[in-house]
Amino acid sequence: MENAGQEIHADKDETRQLDESPCMTPNGVTGQCININECKDLLAILDNPQRSKEEIELLRRSHCGFADKVPMVCCPQITPPLDRRCFTYEGKEGTCLGLYSCPLLMGLLKPPVSKDNLSYVQLSRCESPDRYSVCCGPDEAVPPAPGKQAMCTLTAAPPDPRTECCGLDSGGGNRIFGGNVTAIDQYPWLTLIEYRGVRDDRIKLLCGGALISGQYVLTAAHCVVGPVLNSGTPINVRLGEYDVSFSGRDCVQVEGGGTDCTDPVVTIAIERTIPHKDYNPSAKLRR
After folding, report:
1. Exposure string over 68-77, b if 16+ CB within 10 A, otherwise e
2. Which residue, among 184, 185, 148, has the nearest Cα to 165 in the 3D structure?
3. What range(s) does the Peptidase S1 domain occupy (predicted)?
4. Which residues does residue 97 pair with via DSSP β-bridges, in sequence order?
5. For residues 236 and 228, is the Cβ–Cβ distance under 8 A?
6. Please, what is the Cα angle at 132 between 101 and 93, to 5 degrees?
7. Per residue in 220-263, pLDDT tens?
8. CATH of 22-76, one of 3.40.50.2000, 3.30.1640.30, 3.20.20.70, 3.40.50.720
């Protein structure tokens, strides 16, 4: 390396040809032996006429051969940023963090710890390098303390039965469209997607969709790829569900004292999912 002065040089007889082979940097980090022009950090040091003795020594120790008389250096591998997006138990987007980094969930573990709060924290676990990771969501994702009135907020996910929230209408309807309560049989093509939990093997309702033919349901791409898979795997489509807080057929009172009931719910296994080829779950505008 001529630019590094006399500190780094090659013997005239040295003719090693190296192809991006694995190596260990002077700092003990795994790297690749590549052309120095392709290693941004070391190239910046080489091009700096005011480089220090320590930087010259780093260049010398990073040297790993030549390729066509061009110096090769052990360049640290750049690890892509970890995708920490996840979905909370209620289906809201959160961040997968170590438990101690999530004040929302840590607050639930202050003595005395209720059984419900402990269960909620356990169901909030997610996958990350941290020893005990949880999906840390927004403030309203945390269940209210016993006896405290829940704050109902609009969400695309089915309501959590523990919060006693069913949409935003005080009349008790649980399907809100444009601010109006829908009739029990008004949108029969709407579906729910059942997910099997990654950790607890429980059925979770994290997304919805629309039946567009006898065999296909249209849903958002982020419902079948990306962080949602850290919470569960889509396994079934549920048809005919009106109120998820009740099991069995859903019924409402109609004029004249009669009752209008839905047909029994139909659950169909998902054969395969087909995300849009241009969907990028890592993009900021992914939705």
Report:
1. eeebbbbbbe
2. 148
3. 176-287
4. 134
5. no
6. 60
7. 999 999 888 988 999 999 998 888 777 778 888 777 777 888 88
8. 3.30.1640.30
Please state, in angstroms and rounded to a whole number, the distance separating the CA atoms of residues 91 and 94. Answer: 9
The pair of structure tokens assigned to 12 is: 């005239």
Give yes or no for a contact between 56 and 3, defined as CB atoms under 8 angstroms apart.
Answer: no
What is the topology classification, in CATH, of domain 85-140? Answer: mini-chromosome maintenance (MCM) complex, chain A, domain 1 (3.30.1640)
Domains 85-140 and 151-170+183-278 share a fold: no
Pair 219, 225: CB distance under 8 Å: no
Determine contact, residues 220/87, Cβ cutoff 8 Å: no
pTM: 0.40
pLDDT digits (tens, 9 = 90+) for 50-74: 989 999 999 999 999 888 888 899 9
Cβ atoms 199, 207 nearer than 8 A: no
Task: Write the Ramachandran bin of 78: left for phi over 0, alpha for psi from -120 to 50, otherwise beta.
Answer: beta
